């Protein structure tokens, strides 16, 4: 059918690229473009013999709009799947507009010097994408991404009105290290050390980091401690789900992770303020990233499951109704299939599906959109087909 260009070749990209290669009817050609071209070449070497998708590779600095535009114009993909870091979202969107191709990502733009997740920068591109007749699909990972599609699906098929959403992200995987992050350490630590917040009655309620703790008994996993975090899908769901009164996001963390994080914070290692060290400017968090285990090395050692989903409370035919839609994913199964643990898997699979939705025209509309703004049904079917089957419970335990 067409050509996709993947930008970035880290943990999430590796899974998405494996899945693109399994789906060569849709993705007849693939260009992998990243900062370190040797990683792209190594993946091509591994996958080309297993797939009909024709793979090429390229070196690119995704902070440089001109370089990106030239590469996109030369390679001529139909869609660009941005799996670099959130800092590159705007430069890649600019290059897609210049070159006339559709855009998909998994995380919203964040300026490198301010740990602040907000859609305002990317939503400001709406008119330009509309006028160019191009689609930009934002947040096609698991959360945001699948959680947003679960919300649209619940609204379409189960509710007249959804009033409360709790998004629960549980990783019960054990990698055996005292401290490591499951995806890019810099992005992960910026997220969990920021203030928490949730949406209630039309506005944000801010909390201190890890201030709100709950214990939840996750299906197929058991009881885990979870903490309220700010998360980007809350911002768009608050606008796109009519009748919503409250949206919260919880993520599980073990005691060891939190103790290490507190200690690193106390000594200043998680700071994003540059400091001088031996005559060179360094950012403590970037230095910390360099000494922590590489998330892509966790695959063979991580055992256990993830469970990510949404609990909805709302009304159907005038009566109160509850619903839980979730996916569980086994770290070792993911490793066997694509050589990565479940956190990269649960992000890389929906990234491929988002690119497929745009490529096949099932989700194609000029403008900039969040995931819940499209028909959820084809995406939900694709999750079942491509490795992330979901389950529904109509009588779930609720979060207090
Ligand atoms: P990694 O750090 O493993 O990979 C990032 C890749 O981008 C690397 O290959 C890196 O190159 C490349 N890159 C970084 N900067 C540039 C640049 N300037 N030019 C070209 N390439 C660049 O990150 P992850 O795979 O863990 O995460 C990828 C994205 O997925 C992130 O945006 C993250 O926030 C998002 N994510 C979304 C989730 C969701 O559920 N929605 C969950 C988890 C992650 P190099 O190899 O040279 O370092």
From TrEMBL:
Domain Saccharopine dehydrogenase NADP binding per the UniProt entry, residue ranges: 4-137
Top-level lineage group: Bacteria
Pfam families registered for this protein in UniProt: Sacchrp_dh_C (PF16653), Sacchrp_dh_NADP (PF03435)
Gene3D superfamilies from the UniProt entry: Dihydrodipicolinate Reductase, domain 2 (3.30.360.10), NAD(P)-binding Rossmann-like Domain (3.40.50.720)
UniProt cross-references to InterPro entries, sorted A to Z: NAD(P)-bd_dom_sf, Sacchrp_dh-like_C, Sacchrp_dh_NADP-bd
Domain Saccharopine dehydrogenase-like C-terminal: 141-387
Protein name: Saccharopine dehydrogenase family protein
Source organism per UniProt: Mediterraneibacter hominis
